[in-house]
Amino acid sequence: MQNNNPTRLILTLYFPILIAYLLINSPIISYFVAWFGSLFIFYTTILSPAAIIKTDLPIHKQIMRPIFLTQLIFAGFMCTTSIFYFMDHLGYRYLTEVNYGAQFKESEQTALIASCQRMSLLAHTALVTGILLVQKNNISIKSEKTFDNDDFLIWLSIIVFGIGSLAQKVSGLSQISLPLTLIGISCAAVLFVKGFNTKNIKYLGIGATIFMLNFLHASLSGYKEPIIINIIVIACVFFPYYKKLILYLAIPVTYILLYFLPTYNNTVRQSWSGQISAEEAQSQAFENLNSNNEEQIEETNWGFLTRRLSEIEMFTQFVDYVPSHHPFYEWEIIGNSLEGLIPRVFWPSKPNMETLSMERVYDAGVANKMSAVSAKTRPIVDAYLSFGIPGVFFFMLLYGMLVQHLSDKSEEIFGGYELGCVIMFNSIFQGLWRGNNFEFMFNNIFWGYVIMWILFALLRTIKVLKPTFD
User: Fold this and answer.
1) Smallest Cα–Cα separation from 86: which of 26, 122, 32?
2) Whose CA is closest to 134, among 399, 395, 416, 405?
3) pLDDT of res. 27
4) Residue 98: beta bridge partners?
5) Contact in structure between 159 and 121 (CB atoms under 8 Å)
6) From CA 98, how far away is CA 267, in angstroms rounded?
7) Which of 43, 87, 343, 459 lies deepest, with the highest CB count within 10 Å?
8) Does residue 379 contact residue 119 with C-beta atoms inside 8 Å?
9) CB neighbours (10 Å) of residue 73?
10) Residue 396's closest CA among 376, 378, 423?
11) Which has the closest alpha carbon to 38: 66, 77, 68, 80?
């Protein structure tokens, strides 16, 4: 970690927030200051000479640590994607087509959007503050691999992926199945890269097979997130070895995903009705992605960019609802989340957390009870609904401290960055990349922590890991 002053760095991060709030009476300017504020934080904490980054590994070999990956995904999703919705609000489409009637006219909605963007920037700053406050440069490694090679990753991948896949078929075990399946996929990705680099056919074959099977399954799901997550994981594990290639591919791949994926998935979702199979829907989706459907693709994608990629419209609806029409929830959401930790086997009449969390969505008019949409809130929204702007700062500060602690602890007990951070932390706690509503997030963190220690005990028991002796 560089000998930079963390206090000075942290205080510097709050300048954009201060300026954005000073310009509160000019909502358009205030919005753009807050939006660019997140870009300023990205630069200051990752690329600038003032950045405080661990020195045990070169920067390009530690990009899956929270200061890089979690920050970029969380703040990228919550803070920077709002630009599409805001430009649409100002009368622009794809930054070129202009509705002159709406161009740069301020309204009550403009002020709401700017308010939400300022809170998003505050959340981003608090997240990074929490990470920097608890980040350790030197982690005391408690374990090391028993074997000199990476054959154990093959068995770990097969075992956890198999258990996770079986658990998916058992009602009530989804909390266990998802992190285990993700560990298997991460192991496969690491094996894939190692096999590719060393020309080890065994690693390459097993890793590529598991990873590609999962990617195929994701492409048939009708959801965008599994596809995007698979691409992020494989890009991150390849990055230390092919950083220039990954950087060159980043923009065109992102463009392809944002341009084609919404239309592709909308077509695949036809299989949900059961009238056609997922494979047939996939074939039809590829047929739709041609130049003849350019207008339809652009229409679908602009709707995705403005109202689904970014959730700021939903955020504005909650801010308009609370506290004007409903008092702050205070400890109600947190209390429900803590109750959700109790296994249903011990409390058969436990409320359904999905139903409970959707009640505030329906009450605020964000979604209709008759629709099939699941518009669950995100951590920033639940923090605001609970205690307003102070709640956003406090909970996101804790969020940053928590993700960094979990990452450091994973590296400590699993013997370093690759197994601890890349495979365990970013699989078990992958939900923290973007966050979820409090009810689901509390549950994921608690049971993820339990799974982490169980896996540690298992690997010690079967002699994959052994204690280090200082």
Assistant:
1) 32
2) 405
3) 96
4) 92
5) no
6) 29
7) 459
8) no
9) 18
10) 378
11) 80
Amino acid letter, 301:
N
The gap from C-alpha 11 to its chain's centroid, in whole angstroms, comes to 26
Among residues 314, 300, 416, the alpha carbon closest in space to that of 360 is found at 314
* DSSP notation for 436-452: --HHHHHHHHHHHHHHH
| pLDDT of 270 | 65
List, for the chain, all residue ranges whose pLDDT scores fall below the cut of 70: 1-3, 95-104, 171-174, 269-279, 281-282, 285-296, 370-374, 469-470
Report the distance separating Cα 214 and Cα 378, nearest Å: 26
pLDDT of the residue at 142: 87
- pLDDT of the residue at 105: 72
* Residue 332 to residue 385: CA distance in whole angstroms: 10
Q: Supply 387's token pair.
A: 């205690």
What's the gap between Cα 158 and its chain centre? Answer: 25
DSSP letter at 321 equals: H
Q: Which tokens belong to 382?
A: 């639940």
Ramachandran quadrant class, 415 (left: phi over 0; alpha: psi -120 to 50; beta: rest): left
Give me the DSSP letters along 88-102.
HHTTEETTTEE-TTT
Residue 470 CA to residue 403 CA, distance in Å, equals 27
**Can you tell me the distance from the alpha carbon of 207 to that of 108, in angstroms, rounded to the nearest whole number?**
53
Q: Indicate the SS3 state at residue 428.
A: helix
CA distances (Å), 110 to each of 18, 28, 82, 173, 209, in order? 19, 7, 12, 44, 49
Match 């401290």 to its residue by tokens: 401
Instruction: List the end-to-end C-alpha distance of the chain, in Å, as a whole number.
Output: 22
Distance from C-alpha of 116 to C-alpha of 109, rounded to nearest angstrom:
11
Rounded to whole angstroms, the Cα distance separating 108 from 263 reads 32
Q: How far apart are CA 225 and CA 227, in angstroms?
A: 5
C-alpha 454/C-alpha 450 separation (Å) is 6
CA–CA gap between residue 67 and residue 48 (Å, rounded):
13
Task: State the Cα angle at 86 between 378 and 226, rounded to 5°.
Answer: 40
At what angle are helices 224-238 and 243-268 packed, to 10 degrees?
A: 170
